[in-house]
Amino acid sequence: MKFSLRTKLTISFAATALICVLLIGILTNVQLEKHFRDYVQQNQEKQNREIAGLLSAKMQKDGQWDAKSIQDLGVFAMEQGLIVQVKNGKGEMIWDAYSYNEGMCRQMIQDMSRNMQASYPGWNGRLTTQTLPLMQGADQLGTVDIAYYGPFYYDAADTHFIKTLNGIFIAVGFFSLLLALAFGVLLSRRISKPISHVIHIAQSIGKGTYGVRIHEKSSTTEIDQLSDTVNQLAESLESQEKLRRRLTGDVAHELRTPLTTLQTHLETMIDGIWEPTTKRLESCHEEILRISRLVSDLEKLAQYESDSLNLDKTEFPAEDFLRRLLQTLETTLDQKKITAIIDADGCLFHADKDKMSQVALNLVANAIKFTPAEGRIVLTARQFPEGTHFTVSDTGAGIPLKDLPHVFERFYRADVSRNRTTGGSGIGLTLVKAIVEAHGGTITVSSEEGKGASFSMMIPNRKAGS
Fold first, then answer.
1. Backbone angles phi, psi at 119, to 5 degrees
2. How far apart are CA 74 and CA 82, in angstroms?
3. Which end of the chain is more exposed for a tag (fewer CB within 10 A), N or C?
4. Residues 365 and 428 in one domain
């Protein structure tokens, strides 16, 4: 059964819009509620700390507590859904919300539980207590127990916000569906003929809209071939555009943390909150060095990926080269008691020695970093007709299978728990790949979790045209 192009386009647009809106609505709702729940919990902890801070200020000059002000604060906290018990440094009760109005406390807990059960059937909430010290400078005056309904509680305003947001999602979904139907009808009228559609897509690509594609098949071979050619052109242009945007975003992301740290430290010292001690100035200096290293690595990457990179290729023995490399890392190897083995078999490298040093140093240092104490690293070099094969293997934790395709990408870290100090700038392996490819070679990685990782590269020899 065949349908008209207009019908197919209209149905396709409507189905795509409906699926996208449903997926976006569901995922957004789940993520938003999770983050909103975290926000409510963080806000609760902040409120508890604020109350503790206010109570700490209620110590009078004669060393006595201001009972009237403490009671006012306790009543205010009860109005906010909090049950407060204040004790002095000896553990003696100064003010207790239950003693003040036990009936109000119990009624408040029942009301909060009832409200949460109404919005979330099966909700298993409980009274949660947080104990905070009451400090005056370095002295602890006492403690405050703040009980609240947890692990989190939505008041009427919070519940109304969530319901309103869900209503907006439904309205946007319905409107998007209608808009997609109307757009599908209008567009199908303009591209009813295959050749007109190809022309339209080609014009869109020429204006910079690289995401468009030609999906329809024609009964004419030449038109199909033209459609495929236009699609390939669009994919190539889109790929280049994504790379450019991604690099900009990645650089901004990597620079944000050290710059924010610098700004915060400097502003705190300028405002007189912190003294500009040597330790704090050294911390600022470390952040500046981190930015400098990142910029330096990016400059190297841009140079290595450029077509005009000049390589000073020479032939040199692989074994001597690798032994000198390990000498520079001898201290680190000894500290971790890691055994490094060289198996070069008398082969030669035909490459730029300085840049190959960067490659080997990066791979070996990376292996040392993620190999446990008393582990082993093996450096293997073999000569083949097409070139020299060089492999760095370790007995570390390995790389998860899902991360293997991405290890050479800019700023990618397989273990998200590693920070920028232990994980590096995130472009070390990207530099390695760029240098190897600049030599006309290839590099791959293989790994099995719990059994280590192995990076293998092939550098063409002189006869291979390198």
1. -85, -30
2. 8
3. N
4. yes
107: which 2 tokens?
């009624």
Are residues 108 and 74 part of one domain?
Answer: yes
- 150 and 20 within one domain: yes
Same domain, 145 and 229: no
Average pLDDT over residues 22-40: 73
Domain count for the chain:
3
Average predicted confidence (pLDDT) for the chain: 77
Contact predicate 264/284, CB 8 Å: no
What is the DSSP pairing of strand 376-384 with strand 339-343? Answer: parallel
Domain range for 262 is 194-309
Residues in the chain, total: 466
What does 221-256 look like in DSSP terms, one character per residue? HHHHHHHHHHHHHHHHHHHHHHHHHHHHHHHHHHHH
Comparing 133 with 128, the larger pLDDT belongs to 133
pTM of the predicted structure, to 2 decimals = 0.43
- How many CB atoms neighbour CB 37 within 10 A? 14
Query: Residue 42: which pLDDT band, with cuts at 50, 70 and 90?
Result: confident
Residues 383, 389: Cα–Cα separation, whole Å: 6
Kindly state whether residue 414 falls inside one of the protein's structural domains: yes
